[in-house]
Amino acid sequence: MKKFAFTEEYEIRANTKTLLQYLSTPNGLTSWFAESVTPSQTDKNILDIVWDSIHHQARLTVNKSIGLVRYQFSGPTESGQDPSFLEFKINYSELTSSSFLKITDFSEMSDVAELQSLWEGLIYKLKSLVGDRSLIRA
Q1: What is the pLDDT, as a whole number, of residue 97?
Q2: Which end of the chain is flanked by fewer CB atoms within 10 Å, N or C?
Q3: pLDDT at 1 over 90
């Protein structure tokens, strides 16, 4: 099956260091992104990520303090296709005191409306955890 790259950027009113904890650690990911995230006993960069009671194995391939985190998923790929991956890139704006989280979800899922809905729900959870003031209504 052909892979599709979904890319979206979200404004989150939190600092980069706080966001990185939620994007790059098993506990952080479990709090907003998946049912559970467990590191391998032999390699802490290999994670067992559970969604809808289905286990997926991913390797943390990039984790930079500048705000870049990337997970590459294991599994069968068609000949010549790149493996699925998920990338989080944080850019901070001093002008707005906000972080902008760019997500690239490269997978077999290609329904843009479904992906937007999925990520909007996940980002709402993340914003509530980091105390994003934009969630507070007057």
Answers
A1: 81
A2: C
A3: no
Q: So where are the chain's domains?
A: 4-133
Q: CB atoms < 10 A from the CB of 45, how many?
A: 12
Phi, psi of 134 (to 5 degrees): -70, -15
72-102 tens-digit pLDDT: 999 766 666 788 999 999 999 888 888 999 9
CA quadruple 115, 117, 121, 126: dihedral, nearest 10: 50
Question: Looking at the chain, which runs of residues are DSSP E strands?
Answer: 4-12, 36-39, 46-51, 54-64, 68-73, 85-93, 98-107
Q: Closest Cα partner for 56 from 73, 71, 42, 43?
A: 73
As its CATH architecture, domain 4-133 has 2-Layer Sandwich (3.30)
Mean pLDDT, to the nearest integer, of 30-57?
Answer: 95
Task: Scan for tokens 């909007």, then name that residue.
Answer: 120
Q: What is the dihedral of CA 90, 119, 48, 107, to 10 degrees?
A: -90
Residue corresponding to tokens 């009113």: 13
